[in-house]
Amino acid sequence: MALDKDSLKVRIAAEFAGLGAEREGEHSWVDRLAEAIANAVVDEIQSNAEVPVTTGSSAGTYGVV
Q1: Is 2 exposed, middle or buried, given 0-12, 13-18 or 19+ CB atoms closer than 10 A?
Q2: pTM (2 decimals)?
Q3: Which residues, 6 or more positions from 49, have their beta carbon under 8 angstroms from its beta carbon?
Q4: What is the pLDDT along the chain (65 residues), one digit of tens a residue?
């Protein structure tokens, strides 16, 4: 499964809305906050996550894309 910043943003914003936050309105930060969190999470995973392959000709450790 590929990591998708936009999809994660929508999920985070929906969770905020489920807690009672308003996504619309002049002073709402829900979507901007959700975007910042999604971007940071995906960037962190893509920068630092590693997947070990322990057998076969592709044995080794690979980064997550």
Answers
A1: exposed
A2: 0.77
A3: 63, 64
A4: 678 999 999 999 999 999 999 999 989 999 999 999 999 999 999 899 899 999 999 999 988 77
